[in-house]
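Troubleshooting entry. Yesterday's outputs looked truncated, so today I'm pasting the complete records for two proteins to confirm everything comes through intact. If either block looks cut off, that's the bug. Protein one:
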Amino acid sequence: MSRIRILPDALASQVAAGEVVERPAAVVRELVENSLDAGASHIEIHAQRGGMAMIKIVDDGSGMDREDAMLCLERHATSKIRTKDDLAAIHTFGFRGEAMPSIASVSRFRLATREKDALVGTEVEVNGGKLVEVRDHGGSGGTTVEVRSLFFNVPARRKFLRTEPTEFSHIEQQVLLHAIANPHVAFTLTHNADLVFHLPATRDLLERIRGLMGDELANRLLKVEEQVHHGVSLSGYIGGPGMSRSSRQMQITYLNGRPIESASISYGLREGYHTALMKGQHPVTYLFIQMDAHAFDVNVHPAKKEVRFHDGNGVRDAIARTVSRTLETANKLPSGHAPMRLAPTAAPTIDIEPPKQDILHLGIEKQSPPPKLEFEPPKPVVAIEPPKAVAITPKPQTAPEPLTGPKTEMPDFRIIGVLQKLYVLMESPEGLVLMDQHAAHERVNFEKFRRALESGGVPCQRLLMPVTLQTTPRDSDLLRQNLATLSRLGIEIESFGSNTFKVEALPAFLKNDDPVAWLDGVIEELSSLSTKSSSLRLSEDAIATTACRASVKSNDVLSIPELQSLLKDLFACEMPYCCPHGRPTLVQIGTAELERKFGRRAPQ
């Protein structure tokens, strides 16, 4: 007796539904994509109990006649493709012909549709994959799909659904993704009969983002002017320096209008943000990618969220270049927007220390421009060897160019004090600006060292007694791979055994009494880099580590002329608003925000 049997259609549809319809949000995704493919200009999404009780999608698209309304519930029935050549260049959201029958097989399903020029439409009812009734429909043009009691006949699947708020949050995210990609379409979303949002149609993408995410986020976004690299066209909006999230939830990317995820895109964004993003953080992006449909394959997964590129490296490079160029032209100050939360504690005792005279009165009396200063910590720092005994032998190379003319227009800031020997308080026409002196000096040093690297290498200082460095086998292999990069950074290091290295020179600017600890920090930073990082990223992360260790620290007291010179050098940088590790160098708290915190009304 044969043990292999063909599954009944109803059971096969339920198996297929396991791939296509894993939760209520997947139903919304498939039905909204069908509405967009039908050319709808207004889409309504209604949900009850997180979509588990009811999901209803109403659109004003092209609608269907009776024959198409019946065929769309058959497996592998679709109007989107005809031949295998169509599969290689898909221009619609749907194409597999699995969504509608899969949804109908695990719910109480009703489809009502009418073509705009037809006198009467069609209404179809399906219960758990079984056709119940087909009748005439006299409603308005377009299509309405109602899905009730999702997974009522698949209890094993239903018990794995999350709570009502969680399931609805996934629905809201799906609607948000499509609403951003289609600002010309009006969207309405309700939950348990309560209006969540109503978005009128608009031609302005930023206006659609503003309607969904609010003014605060929209005002901090940078516009990506359309650029084309390697046949890849990119446009949209991205978060500026210092604007990031701890998850990828707001890292939104579209390929030919379809929301997607791809490792190549993630790597490209990471490289584009390489010195403007904190480690462990993810950028805020609304990035639109346009390319030939033959250059990628969307037929990878039933959810159609993953794609494969024929030239993934080209896509990654195009994204990295576009993001990097957009960030370099940014001129927006990060804002201190976090709401202040006050704990119910006893009134604190405030001890006011009289400020220094030269800080508080800076800007009242005119002063001549301060001389260009090289910043050193004010406390004496012991060099690797006493200066008289050290022979400095710089390599034959071009010295780094000074920071001449500001790349960003020098703002009208007036220094009014220093908080906790770290944060420089400045007054601007828009309110209060705080500068992190360590982060600012890191950025200045980073760009100075990077220019030195590009022009031939960083000057080095030879040690009287070479330092021996014992490493693990993994770190030993890492150092051998990066000897050329380290040499250009002013670190002369060579193998001195199986897992031992001899260090004969260090960067001339380095002031450190424990070179071994400093080198351990450099190795740790190198080991944390992804193997998929480009050589540019690898070099610049090493420079960032070097710049961090050579910069002024939080307790180093700088004079007013030094602070003025630091501010001038900062705004001569290509990217002045963040340090090479992605932390903001400057934060602005606007006058309106201050007035709000003190209970004052903004002036009319």
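Protein two, checking that the full record survives here as well:
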Amino acid sequence: MPNNGENESNGSRALAEYQASLLTEEDVYLFNEGNHYRLYERLGAHALTLGETEGTYFAVWAPSAERVQVVGDFNRWGETPRDLHPHGVSGIWEGFLPGVKKGDLYKFRIQARDQNYRVDKADPFAFLAENPPKTGSVVWDLWYDWGDREWLEQRKGSNPLTEPISVYEMHLGSWKRVPEEGNRRLTYRELADQLPAYLKEQGFTHVEFLPVMEHPFYGSWGYQCTGYFAPTSRFGTPQDLMYLIDCLHRHGIGVILDWVPSHFPTDEHGLAYFDGTHLFEHADRRQGHHPDWDSFIFNYGRHEVRSFLMSSAMFWLDVFHADGLRVDAVASMLYLDYSRAEGEWIPNRFGGRENLEAIAFLRQFNEFVHREFPGILSVAEESTDWPMVSRPTYVGGLGFGLKWDMGWMHDTLQYIARDPYFRKYHHNQLTFRMLYAFNENFMLPLSHDEVVHGKGSLLGKMPGDEWRKFANLRLLLGYQFTQPGKKLLFMGAEFGPTREWNHEESLDWDLLQYPLHAGLQQWVKALNRVYREEPALHAHDFSFKGFEWIDCNDSDNSALTFLRREGGDRAPVLVAVNFTPVPRYHYRIGVPRGGFWRELLNSDAREYGGSGQGNLGRVEASAEPFHGRPYSLDVTLPPLALIVFKPE
């Protein structure tokens, strides 16, 4: 063991004094068992004072390393490297380095047992990293004086599945920029000054951030993550992100974070081939390499990897007060043959294509987060027909709270992109969803994936001239908000960008000077308001108790009518949709009640950019049976429009 002088000696003595309280044998046992959920309190870098000695405790898992040292700006990146020492046979290397303080840069220099492999690795448990493209880790703390106690207490007693959930999905680096300063991105704190008030004004209940975890390549949008415990330093410090989340909570906005336990990038400074072996990933490329993203796949069968990932999930919910995690690319975790041809994958022990270890991990994750954080959301982006994704684990499900309804998204976008003349021949693309709508707890996503890679903007997908494009988009969003299921809308869709999303540029906020764009924004605001105010539109999103067709067969008119119900004898909400540019006058709809029905929403109203056709605010039901109901309404269905009624 090299002798680095008196500091090394003091460090060894201090470590011996400190070991029992920072890394206990119980910690090691739980870590090696796959059940340690707070590793960020034990591994990584922790600045502290031992007696009169200030310094930093370092710990890293590298079981196959021959030697592990800490290098950084405090020792000129290796002029006098500081050795760490094995903690028994745990595979963890640790050491206390006097004089290393908050703000210092560091990496772990790992010498493999294969003497030809030596690499400087970023800390997998670092709380902060250098601003990319630099790759060093930063000694940091997590202290922050939170002001959201009331929000967290209220969340504990909530059941989000019966509440309105309208999510504004956004990429932090391209929501708004500062053109006067070279197109500079907003910081977390600058976002905190603008975003909460905007979301509250628009009526969204939640915001979902594309991954904020540190990532080397900005163009990955965070989905190629290296810092599973570090918010990206592109926008500020961990405390700055905490401040943003705190401000959102105090404005009544929940925060969902995208989380990526499905794969990680191959960058040398990251998790890949960490200690000279395939530590976090499978060694066999048929299991460990993701062909779609040229990335590595976690080895969910390794206990310590499960502890790492579980601790990451816990970290964002516990330390950063996140209200939910949206798990990316779940399908790629579930199937061993995902994006692989025959012979390019290894069957499970029963000969099947299911990834049994990933299934067990996802169940473990969901059981834990819902037990520890009542009221939070776990959301699966799962694109196949895997059964019971959002059903409890005790009945064989994966345990997620919600699942993205990718089928609804694809069918509806494909339908509405058609010329209205031909829509009547594809009516089943609207009605098919009701055959499976309640098999899962669905969220209806119009996400970032639909406005990139040459797909154009949502507005650009709509057929017809400018007026018809906006009418179709208002119709699409109204249909989304009145269908059973929670809602998700990618940033900008609320005012209709004309070009597809570019992560290197700001949204085109200047479009709001034009009436059609401003009208669309007002329409989304109205949708959010009515969606929140009317329990019939959200209380039974996952049960037939909350939905009833009136007429789903009027394909000749490309029209749909249905009821949304709150339950009991409470008044239902009637939704009528016209997917053609032809107004339908004297369109009769059977209803269960007499009296006046008030028009709550009309996407063709002039204030939203429509033609102004409608029903003068209300319609009286006549005692003329229709659609098998005792009363009926004689209404005007405006062109390319959705209207919503409720009995007075």
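Both blocks look complete. Sanity check on protein two: The domain at 179-187+208-404 is CATH 3.20.20.80 (TIM Barrel).
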